[in-house]
Design brief:
heterodimer, A: 634 residues, alpha/beta, ten-stranded mixed sheet, eight-stranded parallel sheet, 16 helices, B: 554 residues, alpha+beta, eight-stranded mixed sheet, six-stranded antiparallel barrel, 15 helices, 43% helix, globular
Chain lengths: 634, 554
């Protein structure tokens, strides 16, 4: 009996010891991560959690709800990435999982780590903790501390992102006791508002301190920054210098910045310092969250019916009537899935309220980067915003009466835009500052509301034509042709004649001429052409069949990008090294559709889809995210 | 009437009426007629004679009370009355705690009437205990079970939350889980405690009563000792006066006048309790030697119940169960009453399951003579940091026995009571001294307890470490966090409340006493006051002085 008692006691003690030791010896499964299988070049979603806990279900999910959401995301095929992955993707260095997801947990809260632990183990997910470094010294057990970060860093499940040091604080921002965001308002004291220099110094110090405090735990320099309050200086309350100042400072200290908090998708053309994230509502079920996220996935079809709620993101008041959809001022609507759209045609019929200024946006990458048509009482405008500088490309000073239906059509292709009012061509081709910027399509208004009677937006089925010239491209394709890859012959006498009229005409229509350097003579001819200053503005890239490293180097010396014409069999045989290509170089996979598809599967592991061409049908191109190439006469 | 009837004007504890007929079975005057003890009393009783229109109520005074009836002094009740109805409320301290539950209205029959003294012997139609068992005690038992279940459920929930939120505050939650686990484990272990079957042997026993300035209690203590149910020829009683300077020698002499067989040793000047007991041991002739304190009052069968445990030859010593004698004095003594009960019936019982009581308590402990002699010299000559050890005698003696691998047990049914401090100053001094000796002797025990049974060893080391950390945890929870984070320690206080409710509910369940609430009060008293003595005790544990040695501190 005594022996049995001792045996039982030892078993109990061993069980207790095992229980106590279990958390330390069980090991932590590493996040699921198989970069070799990644082929996604469409973009990535960013979900942001402000916390996990009880008591505020709309703001924060409960631990159970958060776990449900994460498991549902995994089941739906989402796979997590790190800020380093996102940076590599945005720089075109590597693809991402087909459904790439970056999970942000803001505020440096301990609950984020504790309550996701099980779900992370179950799903193989990894997350990114955005740490306001001042809180590392906060007393109590609510926030992560330095020791916690050390332990967490060893888990390899977490990455760290900056969230400022004191940037999470509000500061005195006005004489009447107003408070404002640390990064975007000038601090107010008895002596008045701080000077521009002091403002810059204070903000700059906060970015630097955030990076310095976080660096020892991030393993290297922290890559990402998450803006507190999603305020990088875009807002109306922000100081006029705030956006530029913050942009400058964040670029000095970080490589990525998550700014906006109402949109999860970031495409390959996204500005690394204007990235989107979406605050996950705590009360969404896992299935609802997946459904919501799917709506933001890149879409190939047209965006039209504003009553199709899932296809649109509304940020404010919108009302439906039989005849129209009515918007309040300051209540934009965005076509979900249009973030990667570059070449677009939009048609809209609007009625303005008094004092309203309605806008139709395309290529909207951020509040500081977009192209739009505005409708106001004094007429139509085409405006381009580039890093906060808004310039009017065209103004048609024909008044628009309140309630008057106005049909506008905007086409954007490459570096050109065209505008129609009704059937009348108002402007175009208007030169755009950037050759190819992507961004979403949307609607919005200031000053008053507006009604939308009809709306349709669709991508232009743009093609790269391999042809003698634009004239050789089939007529129905000419309007969609972004570039013509044309054989280049050397001038007979070694001196370049005037530029061909066809080149100039094509360029005026936004069609790029890409010389095809098929032989040594063509190379000589290219250099001859480039001696003409006008040609410099026309020729930005050259196409080279199966280029050698020397040829690519030569093109870089000529400050030209390359389109490498690579036979599909070369890709499959490993005879083509995409690593030789520069960040502006493209690849045209030359082969039958079957060969091309197989070659793409290999090529897209190392080369961005949006810099790849193939002789495929539009649906296949959309599926793979590549641009379509056509041969002359095809 | 008994000429030694005490003044019960300010009585604070049941004062059992000496009854020589219940004395040792070996004595010729032994009687089994009365099975329940009788208690001195002087509370008013209403005596209702007759019924209906002829009903008349007379006033009387209860002179003694038992479970079965009252002895009432009432000159007004008509002679020849046979049956009456009695209404009375038993004041605190007259009967044991479980009887103190408000007004009693019960029929009784007259069993004896002494017209000369106007005394009426009344027998209740049913014993009070039967009546209480049908109503109040049943209700209290279910209430206690419900409270216990609720407390356990809440505790488990809190512990679950501790696990859930563990990494939010790992040190605090680790401590909390350990404390909860420790307490619950002690309750679980205690549930396995079993009393051994009674033994009929009556080996020679020597009972030692060390005394120092206990003039008020020693006579009563000795008289009660002499009334123990044990054969007179086999019970040697030695009173050792360690240089008392008050009326103690005279009090001992009065007891010896009644019971000449009491032996007496006197040190002058005093040499300390340890030397007094050692001298007693050397004179003792008994096969078993019982130590009691000079203010310990033993139940009649206490020695028998101690000896029951010595059926196992490996048992070297057994400690009895001690309750508070002066329980009704004030809130402090009531708190101590609950604390004593839990300390013995839960903590010591849990240790006894592993035959490793860590402290054979001073009020009542019995040693096998040869085992005691093995360690006597070492015990008497114990020094600490080069100075003689002058307190913590019981713990150090226990350690000596445990170190040699002997079994040391607790006897629940060997019951006694003791006088506890009635004012905070004395109580705090006593507690500080106990903590010093606890720390010192626990350090010693740390060197060998790992050899004991695994769960006992684990429990011992936890029981040593957790109280040491407690002041830091309390400081953090009650002071630092509220001050620095402006967060009220509601969860912490709630946790203490639940744990204390769990402890107190056991008292309510077993003792059926309304004093259980004082257990909760004591937990908070500990948290706010006593816990701060630990750092002091740890820092001054090498000190050998008693502070001031006075009655009711031993």
């Amino acid at each position: 009996m005594k022996k049995l008692s001792l045996l039982v006691q030892w078993l109990v003690v061993l069980a207790l010891a095992g229980l106590a030791a279990y958390p330390f010896i069980k090991g932590r499964p590493l996040p699921e991560r198989r970069p070799k299988t990644w082929r996604g070049w469409q973009g990535f979603m960013v979900l942001s959690y402000a916390g996990i806990g009880e008591g505020s279900p709309e703001a924060y999910p409960t631990p159970e709800r958060a776990a449900e959401q994460l498991v549902a995301l995994h089941a739906a095929g989402y796979r997590t990435i790190t800020p380093a992955d996102a940076l590599g993707f945005l720089e075109g260095r590597h693809p991402l999982p087909a459904k790439a997801l970056l999970l942000l947990f803001e505020g440096g809260r301990k609950d984020s780590v504790i309550f996701t632990a099980k779900a992370f183990q179950k799903t193989g997910f990894a997350g990114t903790l955005a740490i306001p470094t001042r809180l590392l010294k906060a007393r109590g057990g609510f926030f992560l501390r330095r020791g916690d970060l050390k332990r967490i860093a060893k888990m390899r499940t977490w990455s760290f992102a900056g969230m400022g040091h004191e940037a999470i604080d509000e500061i005195p921002a006005g004489p009447a006791g107003e408070r404002g965001h640390f990064l975007t308002r000038r601090a107010w004291s008895d002596a008045g508002a701080e000077s521009a220099a002091d403002f810059r110094a204070r903000v700059a110090a906060d970015y630097a301190r955030s990076r310095e405090v976080l660096a020892p735990f991030a393993g290297a320099e922290p890559l990402a920054y998450v803006y507190p309050f999603a305020d990088a200086g875009h807002g109306a309350e922000a100081d006029p210098d705030a956006w530029t100042l913050n942009r400058d400072e964040v670029e000095k200290n970080f490589r990525l910045a998550f700014v906006h908090a109402h949109h999860p998708f970031n495409g390959p053309g996204a500005d690394p310092y204007e990235l989107n994230r979406w605050r996950v509502p705590g009360n969404l079920s896992g299935a609802e969250l997946v459904w919501q996220l799917e709506q933001y996935a890149p879409r190939a079809d047209a965006a039209g019916d504003l009553r199709e709620v899932g296809a649109w993101q509304f940020d404010g008041g919108v009302r439906y009537s039989e005849a129209a959809v009515e918007f309040d001022p300051g209540a934009p609507a965005w076509a979900r899935g249009s973030d990667n759209w570059a070449d677009v045609e939009v048609e809209a019929t609007l009625r303005l309220a008094a004092d309203a200024v309605a806008s139709v946006y395309v290529r909207h990458a951020s509040p500081k980067s977009f192209l739009r048509v505005t409708l106001a009482a004094d007429g139509l405008r085409v405006q381009e915003n580039l890093r906060g500088r808004l310039r009017t490309l065209h103004w048609q000073p024909e008044p628009i009466a309140p309630g008057e239906p106005v049909a506008v059509r905007l086409r954007v292709k490459g570096p050109r835009a065209w505008l129609w009012r009704g059937a009348e061509a108002v402007a175009g081709p208007l030169p755009l500052a950037e050759r190819r910027r992507t961004g979403r399509v949307g609607l919005g208004a200031d000053g008053g509301g507006f009604q939308v009677e009809a709306f349709r937006a669709a991508q232009i089925a743009a093609v790269y034509a391999v042809a003698a010239d634009l004239e050789s491209v089939p007529a129905d394709e000419q309007a969609h042709t972004l570039a013509v890859i044309a054989p280049l012959a050397a001038p007979a006498d070694g001196t370049a004649p005037p530029l061909p009229h066809a080149w100039l005409a094509a360029a005026a229509q936004g069609t790029e001429i890409v010389p095809l350097l098929a032989d040594a003579a063509a190379w000589d001819g290219l250099e001859t052409w480039l001696r003409q200053p006008a040609a410099r503005g026309l020729i930005a890239r050259a196409a080279v069949p199966a280029p050698t490293p020397e040829q690519l180097r030569r093109l870089r010396e000529l400050e030209l990008g390359a389109i490498a014409l690579v036979p599909a069999e070369n890709v499959l045989a490993g005879a083509f090294d995409a690593a030789l290509l520069g960040p502006n170089d493209w690849v045209l996979v030359d082969g039958s559709p079957e060969e091309t598809l197989v070659a793409l599967d290999r090529l897209l592991a190392v080369h961005p889809a949006h810099r790849t061409l193939g002789y495929l049908d539009p649906a296949q191109c959309a599926e793979w995210g590549i641009a379509r190439a056509v041969r002359s006469g095809s | 009437m008994d000429t030694q009837r005490p003044d019960r004007t300010n009585a604070t504890s049941p004062y059992e009426k000496p009854d020589r007929r219940r004395r040792a079975r070996s004595r010729p005057t032994y009687s089994t007629r009365r099975t329940d003890p009788r208690y001195w009393s002087d509370f008013p009783v209403q005596i209702v004679v007759g019924s209906g229109k002829s009903e008349t109520t007379f006033a009387g005074t209860a002179r003694d009370v038992s479970d079965g009836g009252l002895l009432i002094e009432s000159p007004d009740v008509p002679a020849g009355t046979k049956t009456v109805r009695l209404r009375f409320e038993v004041p605190e301290g007259i009967l044991p705690e479980e009887y103190i539950h408000g007004t009693v209205d019960i029929a009784a029959e007259v069993r004896r009437h002494d017209a000369a003294t106007a005394h009426w012997g009344m027998k209740f139609v049913e014993p009070l205990s039967h009546r209480l068992a049908r109503s109040t005690w049943t209700l209290l038992r279910w209430a206690a079970i419900a409270l216990l279940m609720a407390a356990i459920a809440t505790t488990l929930f809190l512990k679950y939350q501790n696990f859930q939120f563990f990494w939010f505050d790992a040190p605090l939650f680790f401590y909390s889980i350990l404390v909860g686990g420790f307490l619950i484990s002690r309750f679980v272990f205690a549930a396995f405690y079993r009393n051994p079957p009674p033994r009929t042997e009556t080996p020679p026993v020597t009972l030692l009563v060390p005394v120092f300035n206990e003039a008020e209690q020693i006579e009563r203590t000795l008289r009660q000792v002499m009334n123990l149910e044990y054969p007179a020829g086999k019970l040697q009683v030695i009173a050792i006066d360690d240089g008392s300077t008050d009326g103690t020698p005279a009090a001992i002499q009065r007891a010896r006048d009644l019971y000449p067989e009491i032996e007496h040793i006197r040190f002058e000047p005093g040499r300390g309790k340890r030397h007094a007991l050692s001298a007693g041991v050397r004179r003792a002739t008994g096969q078993f030697i019982v130590f009691i304190d000079s203010d310990s009052f033993l139940e009649a069968d206490a020695i028998h119940r101690l000896l029951d445990h010595f059926g196992d030859p490996e048992v070297a010593a057994v400690t009895g169960h001690c309750d508070v004698e002066n329980v009704w004095t004030n809130a402090l003594t009531k708190m101590q009453s609950v604390r004593y009960y839990v300390a013995f019936r839960v903590m010591k019982a849990a240790e006894s399951v592993f035959d490793s009581i860590t402290c054979l308590s001073g009020p009542l402990a019995c040693y096998r003579r040869e085992r005691l002699l093995e360690v006597l010299d070492a015990w008497e000559g114990q020094t600490f940091l080069g100075r003689p050890a002058t307190f913590g005698d019981d713990r150090s003696l226990t350690n000596l026995l445990l170190r040699r691998g002997h079994k040391v047990r607790y006897a629940e049914k060997a019951q006694c009571t003791t006088i506890v401090p009635e004012d905070h100053r004395t109580f705090l001094r006593q507690q500080l001294r106990w903590k010093r000796s606890w720390f010192r002797e626990s350090l010693v025990a740390c060197t060998f307890m790992w050899k004991k049974q695994p769960l006992m060893a684990l429990s011992f080391y936890l029981g040593f470490l957790l109280p040491l950390v407690a002041p830091l945890v309390v400081l953090r929870a009650l002071v630092l966090v509220p001050m620095l984070n402006a967060v009220w320690p509601i969860n912490y206080v709630a946790g203490v409340l639940v744990m204390s409710a769990m402890i107190s509910s056991v008292y309510l369940l077993v003792k059926r006493s309304r004093l259980w609430l004082y257990g909760i009060m004591f937990c908070f008293y500990y948290m706010f006051i006593l816990v701060w003595q630990l750092p002091i005790a740890v820092l001054t544990f090498a000190e050998t002085s008693w502070g001031t040695r006075s009655k009711a501190e031993i």
